[in-house]
Amino acid sequence: MAVRRRPLLAKVLMHVGLAPFLLFALFPFYHMTLTSLKTDRELYDRAAVPLVIRQGPTLEHYQKLIWETAFMTWTKNSLMVTGMATTISVVIGTIAAYALARLKFFGVGTFGTGIFVTYLVPTSLLFLPLAQVVHWLGLADSKWSLVVTYPTFLVPFCTWLLIGYFRTVPKEVEECAMVDGATRIQALWRIVLPMAVPGLVCAALFAFTLSWNEFIYALTFTSSSDQFTASVGVTQELIRGDIYFWGSLMAGAVLGSVPIVILYVFFLDYYVSGLTAGAIK
Q1: What pLDDT is recorded for position 211?
Q2: Distance between CA atoms of 81 and 143, rounded to whole angstroms?
Q3: How far apart are CA 140 and CA 133, in angstroms?
Q4: What ranges in 37-107 are assigned the alpha helix state H?
Q5: What's the pLDDT at 227?
Q6: CA dihedral angle for residue 67, residue 68, residue 71, residue 76, rounded to 10 degrees
Q7: Is the separation of the CB atoms in 223 and 141 below 8 Å?
Q8: What is the pLDDT of residue 89?
Q9: Residue 181 per-residue DSSP state
Q10: Residue 176: what are its φ and ψ, rounded to 5°?
Q11: What is the pLDDT of residue 198?
C-alpha cells in the first residue's frame, strides 16, 4: 500500500504546487469574462465586489458590441490579414530556414545571425519608414498595407524558429532520397517538410498569434472603420476621450480571444513538440 500511495501523493503535491501558477494564468480571463457579463449599474457601483456578479449576468455588452459597432467587419479583416500574412511568412520563412540550415555558401552564419538580430528590432522603430513604403505603394488606409508589412517581423521569427527545427531532421534521410534520384526540391517537399510538420505548425501558430494581436501597425496604417482590425476597432470605437465602455471592451477581448484559444487547443501537441525540438539545436 505504501508503494501505491507514493505516486498518488506525488501527483497531489505536484497539482497543489501548480495551482498558484494556474490561478495566476487564468485570473485575467476570469476578470475579463466577469466584467463583460456585469450590468453597467454594477460595473460603476463603488460598493460592488469586483470579483463576483451580484446583480445577475447580462449579455447587453455583447449585443452592443455586435449590433451597434462594426465588430464583425473588424473580425473579418483580422482573419483575412492574419491568414494571408501568416501563410506568406511561413512559406518564405521555410525556404529561408532550409537554405540556412542545409546549404553551404559564403556568409551563411552571418545571414542567420542577421535574421535573429532583425527579429529583435522592435516594431515601434519600423513603422515610420514603413509608413513611407505603404504610401509609396498606394496602400494607405487599407488593410492590404498590413498584409504587406506584417511579414517584416513575421518572416525573421519564422526563419529563426525553423532553422533550429530543420537541424533536428537527420541529413542522412534527405541524402538517401537524393542518391535515389530526387532533386533537392523534391527531397525538401517529400522528405523534409513531412518530418518538420510540428515545427511548421509551431511557426504558423506563433505567426498567427503575433498578427492577430498586432496593434501599432494596424493603428498607424488604417484610419477608416471598415479597414480596422479587431484589436484597433474595439479600442477606437469603445474608448471616447476619457470615457471607457468597460463592459463592451471586455466583451470584445473575450470574443477576440476565441480564435487563438481554438487554434491552441487543437494544435497544442504540435506546438509543444515543435518548440522543444527547435530549442535544443
Answers
A1: 93
A2: 7
A3: 9
A4: 40-43, 60-68, 71-102
A5: 92
A6: 60
A7: yes
A8: 94
A9: T
A10: -65, -40
A11: 86
For 144-197, write each residue's pLDDT tens digit: 999 999 999 899 989 988 888 888 888 888 888 888 888 888 888 888 888 888
174: which 3 cell numbers? 534527405
Name the packing angle between helices 197-213 and 268-279 (round to 10°).
110
Question: What pLDDT sits at residue 24?
Answer: 92
Could you tell me how many residues make up the chain?
A: 281
Q: Give DSSP secondary structure letters for 111-150.
A: HHHHHHHHHHS-GGGTHHHHHHHHHHHT-TTSTHHHHHHT
DSSP H or E stretch at residue 59: none
Q: What DSSP string describes 186-253?
A: HHIIIIIHHHTHHHHHHHHHHHHHHHHH--HHHHHH--SGGG--HHHHHHHHHEETTEE-HHHHHHHH
The end-to-end CA distance of the chain, in Å, is: 44
